[in-house]
User: Which sequence fits this backbone?
């Protein structure tokens, strides 16, 4: 029984798979941990019954399997110390395990940004990527009328997939103005692979109405969504639907890096040219270092994996590709910046913190001078099980509040489990990657 | 999904709030609850809630699985004979 590894990678998305593969090929003992039952992360999440996995995903997983790194699926990191230990929750066994590392690579990805608006808690309102994940998980949307709203390139991809899965896309509503997107479009010419992706999506969405400067102001319905009120700033109208898929681009998952004490600036983990954080033995790759998409994540992961395996020199040729992809990510962030109207949609009775049912009116009283800590103490906002992962980015956008303290456990686990001594991770229990990764 | 469900697709049978449901093998419990129009939980003030993020972050999909509360249904795959209930 041995849970000691030279390198542990947290997160088995594009960045984590690339990092683990690169490190293992350098002869290191590598463990790749992910909370999901399968590798691939969110963007490469496999669909139920899918027999032809995405090409890039299949290649990444085949390389990983050939590398000798070990996959531990269904593992959620709940505590970590920079000295080299991780406490990991295994939900299927309802038990804690301990892993130790010399070097750690944080590839924890990103989540969707949500903004509160009247009706956003009604069943049938999902994140955009959220609905896509649920459909991949077997939710049958054939014949359902779906309005897609929010911002970011994800909206188009989600609409295309939902349509393929038999949903009727009523409309796609992008809050950003066309003028800004055109600027973004010109930027795409320097990234031909993205252009073909975009073209493919456009063909898939032929006949679907794609509006810019358009956003959801209210979801209607009682126990179920029945429609959505949309606005273009000068007029509002209602569209009937069964489901609303609404997300506002992405927020980096930086909680693990913050807990370890890595420098964070403007919500992203600070890294040097080798993806090394402010802590010598900790690296980060992909979205935690700034939302830049899958190509950036893969190349950053490879750089981090090589650097953590003392082979940084071999990564130097990748810098240019990485830097160009990261620049693309920054341009994307600017193109899809949130308009102010979106930050003022909540009514006094609108729930902002879904875990604790804290309403907008309760928070407004703390808005000036205001801080999240203050609001937390007064209202329990952000103190529920999601630990502010949903309301936090919303509060930051609306009030400029930022969550100052990250404390273990990073995810809630049963009290009894916290009090019991964690078991050493049993490597024989590591799922055979051949089984786990399918 | 329609293209992926074929004659050879295997199904599992689970119960959602007492109602029997057949789901394609590999489906998440959250997908089953959505398919049966069952909310996953009641909020602090008694509102029905259903999954939001689909990736284990938001905790809106918590429900009772085989008697154990607070299970994130979007991260858990349906197993034959599973008993799922809305968490009130």
Assistant:
């Amino acid at each position: 029984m041995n849970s000691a590894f030279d390198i542990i990678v947290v997160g088995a998305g594009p960045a984590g798979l690339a990092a683990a593969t690169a490190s293992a090929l350098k002869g290191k003992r590598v463990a790749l941990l992910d909370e999901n039952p399968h590798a691939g992360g969110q963007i490469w999440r496999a669909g139920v019954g899918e027999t032809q996995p995405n090409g890039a995903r299949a290649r990444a997983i085949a390389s990983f399997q050939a590398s000798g790194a070990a996959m531990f699926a269904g593992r959620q990191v709940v505590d970590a110390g920079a000295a080299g230990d991780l406490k990991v929750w295994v939900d299927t066994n309802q038990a804690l395990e301990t892993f130790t590392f010399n070097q750690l690579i944080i590839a924890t990805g990103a989540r969707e940004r949500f903004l509160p608006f009247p009706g956003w808690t009604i069943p049938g309102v999902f994140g955009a990527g959220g609905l896509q994940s649920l459909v991949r998980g077997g939710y049958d949307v054939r014949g359902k009328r779906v309005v897609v709203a929010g911002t970011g390139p994800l909206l188009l991809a989600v609409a295309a997939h939902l349509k393929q899965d038999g949903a009727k896309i009523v409309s796609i509503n992008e809050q950003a103005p066309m003028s800004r997107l055109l600027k973004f479009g010109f930027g795409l010419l320097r990234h031909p692979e993205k252009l073909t992706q975009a073209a493919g999506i456009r063909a898939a969405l032929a006949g679907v109405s794609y509006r810019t400067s358009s956003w959801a102001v209210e979801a209607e319905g009682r126990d179920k969504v029945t429609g959505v009120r949309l606005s273009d700033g000068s007029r509002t109208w209602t569209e009937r639907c069964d489901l609303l898929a609404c997300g506002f681009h992405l927020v980096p998952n930086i909680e693990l890096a913050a807990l370890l004490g890595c420098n964070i600036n403007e919500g992203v983990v600070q890294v040097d040219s080798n993806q090394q954080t402010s802590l010598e033995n900790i690296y980060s790759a992909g979205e935690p270092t700034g939302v830049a998409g899958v190509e950036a994540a893969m190349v950053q992961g490879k750089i981090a994996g090589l650097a953590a395996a003392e082979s940084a020199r071999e990564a130097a040729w990748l810098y240019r590709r990485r830097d160009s992809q990261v620049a693309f990510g920054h341009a994307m962030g600017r193109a899809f910046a949130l308009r102010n109207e979106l930050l003022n949609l909540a009514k006094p009775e609108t729930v902002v913190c879904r875990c604790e049912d804290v309403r907008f009116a309760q928070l407004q009283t703390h808005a000036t001078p205001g801080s999240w800590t203050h609001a937390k103490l007064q209202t329990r906002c952000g103190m529920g099980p999601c630990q502010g992962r949903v309301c936090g980015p919303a509060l930051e956008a609306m009030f400029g509040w930022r969550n100052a303290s990250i404390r273990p456990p990073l995810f809630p686990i049963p009290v009894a489990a916290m009090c019991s001594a964690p078991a050493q991770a049993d490597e024989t229990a590591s799922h055979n990657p051949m089984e786990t990764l399918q | 999904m329609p293209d992926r469900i074929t004659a050879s697709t295997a199904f599992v049978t689970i119960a959602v709030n007492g109602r029997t449901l057949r789901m394609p093998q590999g489906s998440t419990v959250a997908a089953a609850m959505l398919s049966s129009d069952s909310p996953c939980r009641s909020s602090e003030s008694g509102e029905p809630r259903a999954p939001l993020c689909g990736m284990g972050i938001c905790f809106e999909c918590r429900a009772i699985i085989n008697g154990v509360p607070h299970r994130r249904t979007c991260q858990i795959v349906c197993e034959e004979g599973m008993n799922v209930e809305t968490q009130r």
User: Anything to note?
Assistant: The longest strand of chain A covers residues 95-106.
